[in-house]
Amino acid sequence: MATMTDEPRAEIPKGKTPKRAKYRYEGETIDGERVKGVVEGPSANHARNELAVQGIRVTKIAEKKGLQVEVTKQKVPLVDIMHFSRQMATFLRAGVPMTEALNNLRQDADNTRFKAVLADVLDRVTGGRSVTEALSMHADIFPSYFMALLGSAELTGRMDEAFDQLHAYVRRDVELTRSVRKALIYPCILLGISIAVVVIIVVFAIPKFAEFFKDFGATLPLPTRMLMAIADFVQSPAGMITGLVLVVGSILLVVYVRTPGGRRNLHGLQLRVPLIKTVVTYSSTERFTRVLAALLDAGVPLPDALPTSIDCANNLVYKERLAEAMEGTLAGAGFADPLASTELFPSAVIQMVRVGERTGELSDQLNNAASFYEEELTYAVDKLTAYFEPLMIVFIGVVVGFVALAMVAAMYGVYNQVQF
Questions:
Q1: 0.85 cut: is pTM over it?
Q2: 34-41 vs 56-63, strand pairing mode
Q3: What φ, ψ does residue 148 adopt, rounded to 5°?
Q4: 344-401 residue pLDDT tens
Q5: Spatial separation of the C-alpha atoms in residues 411 and 406, rounded to whole Å
Q6: How many angstroms separate the CA atoms of 44 and 119, rounded?
Q7: Positive or negative torsion for Cα 304, 156, 291, 140
Q8: Model confidence pLDDT, tens digit, residues 118-133
Q9: C-alpha to C-alpha distance for 400 and 420, rounded to whole angstroms
Q10: How far apart are CA 126 and CA 101, in angstroms?
Q11: What phi, psi does 7 have (nearest 5°)?
């Protein structure tokens, strides 16, 4: 029996892992489609093998030189997730096998990253993993409630209904985002134009007028003097430093908000601003009750369904207080009383939960609450955007009106004081 001991094997020191590099590749899928991209691995052969597992025959591969830091990954739009859910429901309802449905959607995907994600999911499902387990490997792409509903549906075999439900959830999120953006487009365009006009007037026009008024030696009105003082400050070293500080402060604020503590403080602030508080309350209530009802309908016990439902709340304050309430529920205090102790949910929700506990129809009452607050959320968002647009227009009118008043008042002041 031959043994391969001619060459010593290089050992990896304990506690260390092989250095991974990025490789650019070009290749073909099993359907003859040409693909290219970047793959990561400890060696070119390892990267080639990983691509082969995904069904890609590599024709060219080379290490990616230069900076190895990927600043941002390509995003997968929520609309793509919405269409994916709807198409999966259609395929499964028509009797198409899961692997075939995933492969068809992978081929049709336009987003490069989503195509790669579906290829990885297909590979894992083909290897024996459940679709929920495979999708959970890419939790940064899919909404938090995605895996919860699919996981419960796999227990009952109603995957087509779960994907239909997910399509409805994602569609609501997409429509909500679109409605807010639609309401903000016009005011934001006006705000941008107004800021540009004011900057041009303050930086370029006001200094010229200041020299013109100075030659007459006339006393200028207060609005004009205020505007000229602003122009002088903007062009002074102190103004430059102030502008730089504001820019740096804004960047630091954005970075801080992305930290766990900053995000927690931002979510707490959202619950103290009147109009925003209503939107956040209705949104978190609808999401929590909807997912919990779906899990209970699927036969998941309440103690097992609560952690997933809590994770679907889109506000960290809700998650923290609901986690505390869950401890009371697990200790035998029921569900309605711990839920009321959070002081976050409307009284109508608590009443519905109490009725559901007494009658044994908790999931039905949670569904009723979710449907009611879904409609209330739509109304609250429309109301918020309806307030924002006129407030923005009033702000723009005040700024532009002040500049116009200062200039016109100066003209009349000089005309009345100077003897021609």
A1: no
A2: unpaired
A3: -60, -50
A4: 898 899 999 999 988 888 888 998 998 898 888 888 877 877 777 787 778 878 877 8
A5: 9
A6: 20
A7: positive
A8: 988 888 888 888 888 8
A9: 31
A10: 12
A11: -110, 135
